[in-house]
Amino acid sequence: MGNLLIIDDNPSIHATLEIVLEPYFDTIKSLEDPLQIMRTLAVEDFHVVLLDMNFSPGLNTGAEGVRWLKKIKETYPNVSVVMMTAYGHVELAVETLKIGASDFILKPWDNRKLLATVQSALQLSESKGEIQQLKTKAKALRKEENAFPEIIGESAVVKNMLSLIAKVGKTDTNILITGENGTGKELVAKALHHYSKRNQEQLVEVDMGAVSETLFESELFGHVKGAFTDAHQDRIGKFELANKGSLFLDEIGNLSFSLQAKLLAALQNRQITKVGGNKVIPIDIRLISATNKNLFKMVEDEEFRQDLLYRLNTIQIEVPALRDRGDDVILLANHFKDLLAQKYDKGTLKFTASAEEKLMSYHWPGNIRELQHTIERAVILVDGNEITPDLIVTSASENTNVKTLNLAQTEEVLIKKALKKHPHNISAAADELGVTRQTLYNKLKKLGLS
Ligand SMILES: Nc1ncnc2c1ncn2[C@@H]1O[C@H](COP(=O)(O)OP(=O)(O)OP(=O)(O)O)[C@@H](O)[C@H]1O
User: Fold this and answer.
1) Which ligand 1 atom sits nearest the alpha carbon of residue 328?
2) Which residue of 194, 262, 329, 396 has the lowest C-beta tally within 10 Å?
3) Best substitution site from 250, 369, 376 to test ligand 1's pocket, by max atoms within 8 Å of Cβ?
């Protein structure tokens, strides 16, 4: 239900419309004089306006209706305006659709058609209101969570990346962010949005790996009520939600081949149609995508559409792996240590020199996310204020199966295996590893295991 405002200089039209439409609205108000429109809309909430096109006696060009339509839409874009006109003026009525009218009805009207038109205008106004609400909510949240993420790092590779982000962030170019898991791709997407002209609008994120084949279109493009069994009400898709803002398609490499075609069509046409709907909705978005996969290789293997890849990667930003960021490991480790020490009320903590050495020598396959978890564990477990190497427990230290070809990691895994097999017997462990006792001691020291 909603509120309806009728504007027509003929009172008998008011009475007839009110009788037909009364069961479908909470409130109906009728005005004869269009000069009262703006005042009325300013004090009461209306969802639909039924607007006649001619008011002054002798004038039937429709120009008055057009002027009032423009005025209403300028101040109240979420209100649906349905124009009322006589049969001879269909062309003019069609023109009003271009300037924001939702629909028109011809006088004399057919009651069923009138009802259908007014009801869909009401639905449209409700969904516009919903988008507005979601956007306002998101805006408030964005302010709270401090929109600009801090990307910590002073290494040359990170500095290069930051200056590229600042440069291309301002443009509307499509950007593909690549990099291993946990390198900070999502953070880069947020920074790009922050630098863009669109930063007052939303950055809408979709995890493409998590969208099911059947719900893909509904999730991205939305659906209308009744489009399928579970479509109990209209739904706004992510594309529409991101309109005027940025759309972040994360894990784009996980999108199935058939869905890639549907995504490409929407990106190419810059418009969408809701599932079960027939209205074409123009979309103005800045596209940011991310993946940890090699999309060029996937194109070669016919797993990813080349035309889609070219649309996504006007600019590509490669986020460096943590192991390639030099001393940033210590910078980041200290950053997380301080944050987490505060969170767990641990006072001031510091890493011992050998703990720092261990942090630097590890190859961080899970990148910054792994570093963050490792530090969190150390902060939770530490007694006193020094974090020693034994508290730095990485995924490789917990895992005694060799799943990687990385030498440093493999060495650490094999040493742990040997120690497990020969507890308290360094000589036997060294023998098993084919090194001298001294070499094993040195390695244990470096790994913080001695
Ligand atoms: N340079 C950085 N400075 C501070 N924190 C960072 C930095 N890079 C990443 N992080 C933090 O590391 C974690 C992982 O980052 P993020 O989720 O952006 O990685 P991702 O590449 O998107 O990961 P995935 O590929 O698994 O989705 C997050 O908590 C993020 O805040």
Assistant:
1) 1
2) 262
3) 369
CA of 123 to the centre of ligand 1 (A): 40
Q: Hey, whose CA ends up nearest to atom 13 of ligand 1?
A: 369
Which residue ranges form the domains of the chain, and what is each CATH number? Answer: 3-129 (3.40.50.2300), 146-318 (3.40.50.300), 322-389 (1.10.8.60), 399-450 (1.10.10)
> Cα(201) to centroid of ligand 1, in Å?
23
- Amino acid identity at 418: A
Nearest residue (CA) to ligand 1, atom 29: 369
Q: State percent of the chain over pLDDT 70.
A: 93
Q: Is the CB of 320 under 6 A from ligand 1?
A: no
pLDDT at site 403: 54
Question: Is the shortest distance between the CB of 178 and ligand 1 below 6 Å?
Answer: no
What is the whole-number distance in angstroms between the Cα of residue 37 and the centre of ligand 1? 52
At residue 411, does pLDDT exceed 70? yes
Q: What is the DSSP string of 219-263?
A: HHHEE-TTSSTT--S-EE-HHHHTTTSEEEEETGGGS-HHHHHHH
User: Rounded to the nearest 5 degrees, what angle is found at the Cα of 351, between the Cα atoms of 345 and 355?
Assistant: 130
**426-433 vs 437-447: helix crossing angle, rounded to 10:** 100
Look up the ipTM and state it: 0.97
Give the span between the Cα atoms of 403 and 253, in whole angstroms.
Answer: 23
The predicted model gives 315-336 an average pLDDT of 96
